[in-house]
Amino acid sequence: MKADQLQDMLLTLRFEMRRAFGLPGLLGALVIGAAAIVCASTPSVDAGTREMHEMQDPARVARTGNAHHRAGERSEPADAVVLDTLPGLFPGFTQSASDIAVIFAQARDSNLTLGSAEYQVTTEAGAPFTRYQVLLPVKDQYSAIRHFLAAVLNNVPNAALQAIHVERPAVDGNILDARVRFELIYRTAQP
User: Fold this and answer.
1) Thinking of the domain 89-187, which architecture would CATH place it in?
2) What are phi and psi for residue 91, nearest 5 degrees?
3) β-strand 159-167 against 118-123: which pairing, if any?
4) For position 191, what pLDDT does the model report?
5) Distance from CA of residue 132 to its chain's centroid?
6) How far apart are CA 182 and CA 86, in angstroms?
7) Could you read off the pLDDT of 1-53 as tens digits, one per residue?
């Protein structure tokens, strides 16, 4: 069979298919063909992914908690190791004074007007963490408040923004009254 004959036969087949199924039918057949190709290539991609997971450093996998689990299986010893090491990643409560100093320094760097802060320490019995809540009244423009929040969260890794309440005292003003509540997390001293 020569190339010209093959080309004529494929052209005839295309015209006959288009006449029988129309343009939407041909597009549907094309989509089905593409789906079949994707389904055929999925096992090789899946096998490559499995090989990459097997080549990872087992100590790093256990340390980060990203152990490869099969569907429905749980690696409870690895999860327990990761959970046992989690409190050790947080600073002790003795660092709270320096964290508060960093928060005030960030407010000073952002040129914020701070009111008197309220503090509350919460420790649940048997819990591995102590929570230190700091409620700060802030008065300034939106951009300065936003810069302050970002600076605190970037410089105090154990801080979480729990709540922010913003009011605009004057309709035409650009100065906002905000109440910002940070929660600082510390590990509880083990006996």
Assistant:
1) 2-Layer Sandwich (3.30)
2) -75, 165
3) unpaired
4) 43
5) 24
6) 21
7) 688 888 888 888 877 877 787 777 877 878 888 888 877 777 766 666 666 55
